[in-house]
Amino acid sequence: MAKQPMLKFVNLPRDMPKKRDASVRKQDFDEIYAEFADAKAKEQSSRCSQCGVPYCQTHCPLHNNIPDWLKLTAEGRLEEAYLVSQATNTFPEICGRICPQDRLCEGNCVIEQSGHGTVTIGSVEKYITDTAWEKGWVKPAAPKQERDQSVGIIGAGPGGLAAADRLRRAGVQVTVYDRYDRAGGLLTYGIPGFKLEKHVVMRRIEQLEAGGVEFVLNCNVGEDLSFDAIRGKHDAVLIATGVYKSRDLGGPGSGAEGIVRALDYLTASNRESFGDEVEELENGSLSAKGKRVVVIGGGDTAMDCVRTAIRQGAESVKCLYRRDRANMPGSQREVQNAEEEGVVFEWLTAPKGFVGEPVEGVLAQRMRLGAPDATGRQAPELIDGSDYVEPADLVIKALGFEPEDLPKLWGVDELEVTRWGTIKAEFTSGQTALEGVYAVGDIVRGASLVVWAIRDGRDTADAILGYLDGATAIAAE
C-alpha cells in the first residue's frame, strides 16, 4: 500500500523559506526570502490536509487549485504541479511573491484555524514556477490557428498582460499600448525589488513578445495616439490603465519642497535598479539618504516606501497611520519586515499640516478609535490638545490612488464612469457602454490587488473571445 504523502501537519511544523537577516537585506534591493530546496518544498506541501471544501481555493481571487498542486509537489511531480498552477493563474511566480497570502489563501487555511500553522502556499507557488522557468517548462504562446482579428490593450500592467496572454494563446493578434518605456505597469515601477525582482517581470514580458504580442511603449493615449485611432485599428479594445492619480493631502504647508508622492518616489528608485540615470536621485529630491523620512499612510504602498527609504540610507524612517495596527489595510507580514529593518510606526496619528520650507516636520495629532463607520471599521477621532511636530526632511504621501478622468483625457465623453471616476463596466465580462470596448483591473474596481487584476484580465479576455466569435459568425452569414 502506497504511503500517504499528505496530512503531515500534525507532526510537521510550518516552516517558511529562510529570511535574510535585516542587517544584511536592508543594504540592497534583492528579495528577502530564499528559495525552498526541493526536499523542503515537498515537506511543507505534505502538510496540506486536502480539505473537502478548500477554503484556501475559495478565498483566492483566481480560485487556484491549491490542494491539487500541493499534493503534486509533495509527490515530486513538479511539472504537473506547474501545469495545474498555470491553468488558473497567468503569473503564478509573481503572485507567489507579492500576494498578501496572510489575508487570502493562507489566512483561510483550515489547519491554521485548528492551531497547526498554515501551509506555506505562497512560497510553494513561487518555488514551483521558478523551477518551471529553470527547467524550460514555461512556453510562449503558440496558437494552433491564427485569427485575423486584433485586440488593442491600453495598459501593460497585470490586468492587460493577463488578457494579452490569454487572447494571444487563442490566436488573436494583440497590441499593447503603454505610456512607460517598459511594460509591466506597477509590477515594473511601483513594487520594489525586495518584493519582486525586476528580472521576474521582464522575462514574462519577453515571453509575451516571443509569443507574438506587440508592445507600443512610450505611447500616451490622448496625446501620442488618440483613443479613436486605436479603436479604429482593432476589432476590440481593452482598457487596463490602472489608477495612477495619487490622493492628495492638504493642510498648511502642504506645497512645501520635500513633500513627494509615493509613486514618484518608488518609480525613481525602481528606475535606478534598472541602471537608468535618475536626475531626482542625483539631486537628492527623491532620495532618502541621510534624511529623516516620514511616510503617511498604512497600505502596502506605504510599506514599500518605508522599506525603500531604509535601503537608501535614511537617518530615520517613521510611518504615520491614523488607525491602529489591527486596522491597517497593509499586509501584517510587511509591517513585521519593516519593523525588523528599523522602521518606527506611529499608530493612531494623523497629519494636520506641515512646517518649514523646505519641509522640516509634519504637524501631527494623536487619534483614538471611536464608533464603527459605514464600512464597519472603527472611525478615528481626534484627541484634543495632542498636536506635536514630527521632524522630517522628506515626507512621502502614500494615501492611495484614484482614477484619472479618462473621458476628458481621451476626448471620449460617451465612455461612462461611476461616481468614483472608475469606468463603468459589466461584472465579469468587462463590457463598457461602447461597442467592442472593455475594461479591467483597477480602472474598474478601484485600487486593488495584482491578483484581482489578473483575474479580471483572464475573465474579460474570455468575454472578448465570445464577442469576436459573434462578430465572425455575423460576418459569415
UniProtKB/TrEMBL annotation:
Domain Dihydroprymidine dehydrogenase span(s) in chain numbering: 25-136
Molecular functions per Gene Ontology: 4 iron, 4 sulfur cluster binding; metal ion binding; oxidoreductase activity
Domain of life: Bacteria
Pfam families, A to Z: Fer4_20, Pyr_redox_2
Keywords: 4Fe-4S, Iron, Iron-sulfur, Metal-binding, Oxidoreductase
Domain spans labelled FAD/NAD(P)-binding: 151-457
Name used for this protein in its record: Glutamate synthase (NADPH) small subunit
Annotated organism of origin: Poseidonocella pacifica
